[in-house]
Amino acid sequence: MKPSLPHSRTCADRRRLRPLLLGVALALACAPVVGAAPASKGAAPARIDPAHWPQPAWPLALDPAMEKRIDALMAAMTLEEKVGQVVQGDIASITPDDVRKYRLGSILAGGGSDPGGKYNAPPKDWLALADAFWEASMDTRGGGKAIPIIWGIDAMHGQSNVVGATLFPHNVGLGATRNPELLREIARITAAETRATGMEWTFAPTVAVPQDDRWGRAYEGYSEDPALVASYAGVFVEGLQGKAGAPDFLDDHHVMTTVKHFLGDGGTDNGKDQGDTTVDEAQLRDIHAAGYIPAIAAGAQSVMASFNSFHGEKMHGHKPLLTDVLKQRMHFGGFVVGDWNGHGQVKGCSNTDCAQTYIAGLDMAMAPDSWKGMYESTLAHAKDGTLPVARLDDAVRRILRAKFRMGLFEKPKPSARALGGKFELLGAPEHRAVARQAVRESLVLLKNQGGVLPLAPKQRVLVAGDGADNMAKQAGGWTLTWQGDGTRRADFPNADTIWDGMKAQVEAAGGKAELAVDGAYKSKPDVAVVVFGEEPYAEFQGDLPDLMFKGGKSGDLELIRKLKADGIPVVAVFLSGRPLWMNREINAADAFVAAWLPGSEGAGVADVLLRKPDGSVRHDFHGKLSFSWPRRADQYANNVGQKGYDPQFAYGYGLTYADNGNLPALSEDPGIDPNASRTSVWFDRGVATTGLTLRLTGADGEAMDIVHPNAATADGSVVMTAVNTDVQEGARQFAFKGAGLVELRANMPLDLVRETNGDVLAIASVRVEALPAGGKVDYLATCGAGCRGEIAIGDALAKLPQGQWARLGVPLKCLRGAGADTGRLDMPFALRGSDGLRLSLARVSIGTDYDRKVECPAP
């Protein structure tokens, strides 16, 4: 077996072991910071001293002629027009007429926001909407100034919101390629396909440095290593925008970029999305800020503030970091944009009112569905002096400067620009070829027992597993929909699944390929390729309590073992957004390939797994781990710089066909009890947590497990829709048209005897939308056949403030008193409603903190 690279983070080791890193990135990440000093003992960990931070050179000198034009425009702008420039609304909640009236300077299309509300809206609809918003911003009939609007969108791995676009591997896979110039080309193609559909601004790249693989956004990070992230950040910015100072910089073939999320999003405690980052200042600077240095040096036009806090202070309100460090010390000359209602999480703020965020240094508030209230309150604050006019003017100037740099004041509507409407660019063959190269170079070979790979194509090849012919699973989150779910194969006209690629190459060589998702083959194959992995997810919906793959009960291990028992060699291809504890699957398979989330070009997998017909290697494995792989399921964090970290596969590991791929049997002890309750939270932000399943059961008794944010029972008695809370789609609303059930079922029975004896409650964060007089609402818990507890909670719900979020507590003792055995709950929570009930649910957990408690019924 090829020896693992040591899991070292010293700069000397980086230089010795990672020669593919750009020299400039290493210099930036490893050079001592002028004036830096180690944190003194007893110093406040949240203290920020700008003198300890680097000073990258901003590459764009002020243009006197441009500044003169900005001066003239701002002198003529009303206060209302200035406020309009610093508020951004989402296309799901704003119309061109709203822009015409309120003169907003920007719109976005957030995850799940599409023209006409159709996730698969055709490209022409995107372009038509871009024209409509542009025309509204340039309409001066009401006396407003003609200031072109800019449209931002999450082009996360290609223009991934639009049907037919090229879908590149997610960043976790790109990190494994160690190919910065490939990243530059991917960014250039993404810019071109984005421009074709009418947008000129993308919320990318993400330069987070994830330090805990449980984080649901880990796949948005290139690596756990700041030096690798830094080596990509600048070239990706240049690919999107063009090179600062070059004639094509920010022209119609490029888009404005957003480097995100500033700062510390990858370092939150326990990997919790939007959580608190409590590292010291040196770690915040040296690890989490590494990507911003080359990005600023490349002229990134915007930076997005992060949802996370730094030692309890939300970044959207963190003046020392947004202003003193980013804008002043680090010479950032673009503008700072917020994240989805992130300003509303600042202490003392709401989604519709937050002068503090601008005072702290935010220049444009992302107020997707709260834009009107935010506009009105900001205008009031500007008038009464709460928001200083000088700060407002600085924000407006920064935004206008970016628009002037893009030449937007001289440009026609989006469809009339150089690439507008050139839909042949979406999924163009030359673009797909680059994406296919990226897939090939991102694959990491972890095991190749007996040299089973590469496979001869002229044989009987079974392709199995639920990821084999599954574009949604292959592409992951941020693909046509926010979570990447709810799509159909027809939504990907310019794409190949892994099965498509395998079938084409096997049959072209004279072999026979068979697809059997469940492994039930018709004729015994010579070899099986099993493709499996995580279901699509995005942001907090992907947060995990530990690194057990699907709670250790995926069924994929059994499939591999079944095929092996039939005497069939098995190659496992694992689709995931992060390393997970897979020792059992690695042991069971003859070869194991980490394929990450490859995107539209599944044929790139076949390029590497299969030999040429003449027996020679078509493409060797190239990828190296950019995230270390865990030895146990409780080995959550990457523990940068800490002694004693002992991963199963270290950073930089990755076999080639020239290596001895034999692997000794790995320990199958996960380090945790997979059968135990792994969390006190059962439902959070709209989804069941790991180890539980959300199910709807109709009045007719027919049940359905829920994987999408919107669903309904077959008889229509329960209809579920996603609703926003302080985060996008942070809750689910249930409308009852009969006696249906909303259930949370445990994969393994929960033992809550200790909690029951300790007066713990099941607590549901609910919002009562409609509660018919006399309507029945019951809480149910079951514990196997013939075992259940049932409590009426309608009266308690009626006492909650209608239309407002509140926490309703149901004592576990009540459930026990009603007949439930709390030592073996297989359904710890269910609500049975009646016709007319509408109830929104954001979270269900056990604890002791509630707003109203249900009283136990008399025995």
Using the alpha-carbon principal axes, give the shape. Answer: globular
State Rg.
27 Å
* Strand element count: 32
Low-pLDDT stretches are 1-43
Question: Helical region count?
Answer: 24
Largest sheet: 9 strands, mixed
From the N-terminal CA to the C-terminal CA, the straight-line distance is 66 Å
Structural class: alpha/beta
Estimate the mean pLDDT confidence: 91
As a percent range, the share of strand residues is: 15-25%
Helix content: 25-40%
Outline:
The protein has about 850 residues and is an alpha/beta fold.
Structure description:
The relative contact order is 0.10. Strands 18, 19, 22, 23, 24, 26, 29, 31 and 32 form a nine-stranded mixed β-sheet that branches. Strands 10-7-5-4-3-2-1-11 form an eight-stranded parallel β-sheet. Strands 12-17-16-15-13-14 form a six-stranded mixed β-sheet, with helices on both faces. By secondary structure, the protein is α/β, with parallel strands linked by helices. The protein is globular and about 75 Å long. Helix 2 (23-30) crosses helix 9 (226-241) and helix 8 (180-196) runs parallel beside helix 9. The longest helix is centred in the N-terminal third of the chain and has 17 residues, at 180-196. It contains 24 helices and 32 strands. It is 27% helix and 17% strand.
Topology of this protein?
Blueprint: H1 11-17, H2 23-30, H3 64-76, H4 79-85, E1 87-90, H5 96-102, E2 106-109, H6 123-138, E3 150-153, H7 171-177, H8 180-196, E4 201-202, H9 226-241, E5 256-262, E6 276-277, H10 281-288, H11 292-297, E7 302-305, E8 309-310, E9 313-314, H12 319-329, E10 335-337, H13 355-360, E11 365-366, H14 371-384, H15 389-405, H16 429-442, E12 444-448, E13 460-464, H17 471-475, H18 498-508, E14 512-515, E15 527-533, H19 556-565, E16 570-575, H20 583-588, E17 591-596, H21 603-609, E18 681-684, E19 687-688, E20 692-697, E21 703-705, E22 711-712, E23 718-723, E24 731-736, E25 741-746, H22 753-757, E26 761-770, E27 778-782, E28 788-792, H23 794-798, E29 805-811, H24 812-817, E30 827-832, E31 838-847, E32 852-853
Parallel strand pairs: 1-2, 1-11, 2-3, 3-4, 4-5, 5-7, 6-8, 7-10, 13-14, 13-15, 15-16, 16-17, 29-32
Antiparallel strand pairs: 8-9, 12-17, 18-19, 18-31, 20-21, 20-25, 22-23, 23-24, 24-31, 25-30, 26-29, 26-31, 27-28, 27-30
Helix pairs in contact: 2-9, 3-15, 4-14, 5-6, 7-16, 8-9, 8-16, 16-21, 18-21
